Amino acid sequence: MMGLVGMVTRRILAGLAATALATAALAACGDDTSGGGGDKAEVTLSLVAYSTPQAAYEALIKAFQKTDAGKNIKFKTSFGASGDQSRAVAAGLKADIVALSLEPDLTRLVTAGLVAEDWNSGPTKGFITDSVVVIATRKGNPKGLKTWDDLIKPGVEVITPNPFTSGGARWNILAAYGAKANKGTDKAAGLAYIDSLIGNVPVQDASARASLQTFTGGKGDAILSYENEAIFAQQHNQELDYTVPDSTILIENPIAVTKNSEHPAEAKAFLDFLYSEAGQKIFAQNGYRPTVSGANTGVTFPTPPGLFTIKDLGGWSAVTKEFFDAKTGSIALIEAKHGVATVAASPSASPSK
User: Fold this and answer.
1) 187-238 per-position pLDDT tens digit
2) Do the strands 158-159 and 289-290 form a parallel or antiparallel pair, or are they unpaired?
3) Residues 286 and 229 in one domain
4) What is the pLDDT averaged over residues 268-285?
5) In terms of domains, do 267 and 241 share one?
6) Distance between the two ends of the chain, CA-based, in angstroms?
7) Closest Cα to residue 59, out of 286, 294, 327, 344?
8) Are the C-beta atoms of 53 and 139 separated by less than 8 Å?
9) What angle do CA 279, 125, 307 make, to 5 degrees?
10) Do 124 and 190 share a domain, yes or no?
11) CATH, residue 212
12) Is 346 among the domain residues?
């Protein structure tokens, strides 16, 4: 009898022990925040961005996923023309993080209730990267194209995207306009220059990356481009040189977490990594100027003596209305004169990648 009782007792104790171990294991899984060992549920973040920083973001995502904060976080990415991407998100394309070329494409999403109004309240004012507009040419610059005046000479073909789909194109146009309008003080001179410049543009692609592909494919004598895009091309063995004009515009690229993100904590963790010294260094290695003051990136960039900003031209609100209103804007009228479409196509809700 005692043997039977002892046997039952041992079985009960063994069962209780097994239950306790299982409970402890489950608790450990539930409490694990390290992201290691596959214990934490995987999260997928949707990054919707403009086209040019694709290589940079691919490198940044890989680096972030090696950190404790980035473990078990996957990404679904979409890259395309900034204006098209902004309109697509406004029309329903899922996005946890939006990284766009220019501020109006971001503020469109604020107006749509998809991005918080205080997106630009931080120390970098919501800008994740800076750049400048440069003049890129064939290797060796056979036609000696180094200044804005060189680009409107007869027989010179200049490649730049459509400013009604591409954020990069607007930066290009405003860099040229501001340089020739003395930072906006001589509007007539600036617009006359843009008219002559557009007359030398044989094709206007939808995005800056598409324009680079057109140029490296053999069309055009020069291309207006982000400095980082020219650096990217050189890093990938494209045969081109580039010049930073004495007078050009500072490009400021915004980023934000969306209000309807299903994973806001993880999305913010990714943004925090982008602003970290490690993140800014990866951006710099991809040709972008850091926005974080004092970040040690190991890369130096020249400062043009005539560098100006969008604020020097009146700010985005005034510039957008005056220049880029599809029907009455000064640039829209010049583009229409040259037979270029100034109304963007309907947005697609399908990611390009």
Assistant:
1) 999 999 999 999 999 999 998 889 989 999 999 999 999 999 899 889 988 8
2) unpaired
3) no
4) 97
5) no
6) 73
7) 286
8) no
9) 90
10) no
11) 3.40.190.10
12) no
**266 strand-pairing partners:** none
Length reported for the chain: 353
Is the domain of 209 the same as that of 310?
yes
Within-domain flag for 323: yes
User: Are 163 and 176 within one domain?
Assistant: yes
> What average pLDDT score do residues 305-319 get?
96
In which domain, by residue range, is 183 found? 131-251+304-337
Name the pLDDT band for 3 (thresholds 50, 70, 90).
Answer: very low
**What is the per-residue pLDDT across 72-102, written as a single tens digit (0 to 9) for each?**
999 999 999 899 999 999 999 999 999 999 9
Q: What residues are paired with 240 via a beta bridge?
A: 138
Rounded distance, CA 321 to CA 77, Å?
31
Q: Token pair for residue 351?
A: 């990611």
Q: Is residue 5 part of a domain?
A: no
The amino acid present at 177, given as its one-letter code, is Y
CA distance 118 to 116: 5
Q: Are residues 174 and 309 in the same domain?
A: yes
Classify 31 as helix, strand or coil. Answer: helix
Domain total of the chain: 2
Dump pLDDT digits (tens) for 277-298.
999 999 999 999 999 998 899 9
- Examine the domain organization and report whether 102 and 219 are in the same domain: no
Contacts of 231 (CB under 8 A, 6+ apart): 286, 287
The model's confidence at residue 52, banded by pLDDT at 50, 70 and 90, is confident
Q: Is position 297 within any domain?
A: no
pLDDT score for 18: 41
DSSP 147: S
Handedness of CA 88, 91, 93, 99 (dihedral sign): positive
